[in-house]
Amino acid sequence: MASLAGIGLASLVGPARAASGLPPTTLTPDQALERLMEGNRRFLAGSAPSGPSNLERRIQLATGQAPFAAVLGCADSRAAPEVLFQAGLGEIFVARNAGNLADTGAIGSLEYAVGNLGVPLIMVLGHEHCGAAGAALAMAQQNLALPAHLRDMLLPILPAALTALRAGGDTLDGTVRANVTLNVGRLQTESSVLAAAVQAGRLKVVGAHYDLDTQQVSAIS
Ligand SMILES: [Zn+2]
């Protein structure tokens, strides 16, 4: 993101401006979603990665980037979006933290992806057996004591944990799914840049779940 320092505010509120030597993707939000899911199907089928990461592509990427989608994912080592979607270098813009949270760093990163790189799709990707969701659930159930930074980081997941506890059943799975839905909403309520892009039809923000047992990504409605 070497060009970040040169960003003008105008580029963050209007249509995407070329922030690199490559033109933005021409995919619609729905086409970008289909391309991601198609990548997960290739991953499921055990196909060899087919992302364009050859030498020619790497040289081209030295002039800029034009990813077709962005993913807000969990830092969990088992849920790497580039792997799950068989995406090559330069194809997806990824923001990750424990709990796939729409915090300041994630929102700012995604505003750059949408406002300057013209990304038409953001996927918030939660996953099965999420440790961050589990810890938030334990905080809600047992008032679990945690180191300060870890506790503060997990606090935004508490509303999802409480929703899951009220609903009953598999409360960890419920927390993961409610947390994804919460953060899909937060991206749009806390960022006027992202909200304006959604309003203009240039962007879709969707929620999804990665199943560690089946390696399948599925939509969370
Ligand atoms: Zn996780």
Characteristic key phrases:
221 residues; alpha/beta; Beta-carbonic Anhydrase, Chain A; five-stranded mixed β-sheet; globular; disordered N terminus; binds zinc ion; EC 4.2.1.1; Carbonic_anhydrase; signal; Carbonic anhydrase
Description:
The chain has 221 residues and is α/β, with parallel strands linked by helices. It is 47% helix and 14% strand. The chain has 10 helices and 5 strands, in the order αααβαβαβαααααββ. A 5-stranded mixed β-sheet has the order 2-1-3-4-5, with helices on both faces. α8 crosses α9 and α9 packs across α10. The chain is globular. The structure holds zinc ion. The site of zinc ion (ZN) has 6 residues, from α6. The site of zinc ion has 6 residues, from α6. InterPro entries: Carbonic_anhydrase, Carbonic_anhydrase_CS. This is Carbonic anhydrase.
Give a quick account of the main beta sheet: strands, pairing sense, barrel closure.
Answer: 5 strands, mixed
CATH class: Alpha Beta
Q: Would you identify the regions where 5 or more consecutive residues have pLDDT less than 50?
A: 1-15
Bound molecules: zinc ion
Beta percentage is: 5-15%
The fold-level CATH name is: Beta-carbonic Anhydrase, Chain A
**Domain module count:** 1
Shape: globular
Indicate the percent of residues in helices.
Answer: 40-55%
Biggest sheet strand order reads 2-1-3-4-5
Query: Strand-and-helix sequence, N→C?
Result: HHHEHEHEHHHHHEE
**Tally of individual helices:** 10
- The helix-and-strand class reads alpha/beta
Q: Architecture, CATH level 2?
A: 3-Layer(aba) Sandwich
Gyration radius from CA atoms, angstroms: 18 Å
Terminal Cα span: 32 Å
Please report the total strand number as a whole number.
5
Q: In CATH, what is the homologous superfamily?
A: Carbonic anhydrase
Query: What number is the mean pLDDT?
Result: 91
